[in-house]
Amino acid sequence: MKVIETIKNIWKIEELKDRIIMTFSLLLVYRFGAQVVLPFIDSTQLAGFASNFEGGGIGSILNAFTGGAFANASVFALGIMPYISASIVVQLMGIAVPYLQKLQKEGESGRRKINQITRWLTIGICLIQAPSYLLSLGTLGVPPEAYLIDNQTLILVVGTIILVTGCVFAMWLGEKITDKGIGNGISLLIMVGIIATLPQAFAQEFVSRIDGVGGPFVMIIEVVIWLLVILACIMLVMAVRKIPVQYARRTASGGYEKNVFGSRQFLPLKLNASGVMPIIFAQALMFVPQALGTLDSDWAVSVATAFSDIFGFWYNLVFALLIIVFTYFYTAITVPTNKMADDLKRNGGFIPGIRPGTETSEYLDRIMSQITLPGSIFLALVAIVPAFVSLMGVTQSWALFYGGTSMLIMVGVAIDTMQQINSYLLNRHYDGLIKTGKNRKAVA
Q1: What is the DSSP letter of 143?
Q2: Tens of pLDDT along 344-402?
Q3: C-alpha R_g of the chain
Q4: Its principal location (predicted)?
Q5: Regarding predicted confidence, which is higher, 27 or 59?
Q6: Residue 263: which H helix or E strand, with range?
Q7: Which own/partner pairs from 214-217 qualify as long-range (CB within 8 Å, at least 24 positions apart)?
Q8: In the list 89, 125, 244, 245, which could disulfide-bond 82, CB 3.0-4.6 Å?
């Protein structure tokens, strides 16, 4: 079989084999750490605490991103999310802070400095989130008898140190996977955390269908719909608009020949250039209405109640609109059409029928605006698919895997990792994962 042959080819490449083994080893360490409970908590008393994160809600989303570590009161309870938050903040600050803009233009040395700033900001965010998490354990359902020590100050100090260390260690694991393994380490940690809760959610849905309404036939329909959503997400991630680009032919002296056409290439503009970031931004803002519930006002309480159900109408309507808005915003700040036009002009390239320079920049900006509209709508629909499937009687924990950030992260990371493995195979004259066929022969 071609799959077995491809696996054998992967194993023949010593460097690729070592990188894959390293990746799985570090991911295993991360998953092991997600099961290690904080030292001052009795793990046998956490059943009620963990049950609060089942069946939907903001807590279930946080728990899914940490692979269950949030509900386990684990040393990795904060997961890698503080690092993601810090990365987003640094990226947005790069638009307005001249120092960060300067670092972005300094190449590898600038990138290392930005990474160092991101790490320190991650620690700062952890120092805020860790005490908040520890103080909320009681209100979230951890019984008093679960605490092995009766000193809240000691719990806060020790717990904060452990949680911050756990996040920094997880960040280190992600960076090591990127350097020594295969794929983007931080993204893989998030994906593995999401996938870790998938078997349990699927088992709960399967049992509910077998013992309840629908039976195996409805379960098969649900799986088919899930696969179709995955296919739609793959199309969203991979879809590009190809802009034809013509390059003038260089002369022997290094100049350009006038009126002589050179190679014709394409400039790919992604339909969803912003990735999952609009969903993450929108998700963060959706915490605000729920925070209004703490105010002493009937109006605030009613708003908080309406937005407390992540499968409710108002929550998903506002969520979808925010995603569309943030898609335009994030695309505008991350797709440098001016720089793309300057690079084309500098390299002797031009879009047929469009003058180089400002006119090219305006043309690219107009095209990006046109393709961002359907891309943003498609992204919003993918994000609210769980609300629709929950109307079919699907358990809420299983419904979360039908769309949203979880689905897009899993699809995006899987495609990125496969492309990296594919490049190793093609460089060694083997067929890649994406295309099948016989081994490629080396060119003499």
Answers
A1: -
A2: 888 888 888 888 888 888 898 899 888 999 989 988 998 888 888 888 888 877 888 88
A3: 25
A4: membrane
A5: 27
A6: strand 256-270
A7: 214/393
A8: 125
Using alpha carbons, select from 15, 65, 30 the residue that is nearest to residue 181.
15
Structure tokens at 435: 């295309």
Phi, psi of 70 (to 5 degrees): -65, -45
Cβ atoms of residues 33 and 169 within 8 Å: yes
pLDDT for res 431: 61
User: How buried is residue 44: exposed, middle or buried, by Cβ count under 10 Å (0-12/13-18/19+)?
Assistant: exposed
Distance CA 1, CA 146 (A): 53
Asked if residue 53 lies in contact with residue 63, where contact means CB atoms within 8 angstroms, the answer is: yes
Domain map (residue ranges) of the chain: 2-196, 238-383
- The CA-to-CA distance between both ends of the chain, in Å, stands at 29
Buried b (16+ CB within 10 A) or exposed e, 387-407: bbbbeeebbbbbbbbbbbbbb
pTM reported for the whole predicted model: 0.78
User: How is residue 149 written in tokens?
Assistant: 């020590």
At 158, the pLDDT band (50, 70, 90 cuts) reads very high
Q: pLDDT tens digits, residue range 127-138? A: 998 998 898 888
CATH value of 2-196 in 1.10.3370.10, 3.30.390.50, 3.30.1490.480, 3.40.50.720: 1.10.3370.10
Helix (H, G, I), strand (E, B) or coil at 37: strand
User: What is the DSSP secondary-structure string of 382-399?
Assistant: HHHHHHHHHTTT--HHHH
Alpha-carbon distance 160 to 186, whole Å? 22
**3-state SS class at 258:** strand
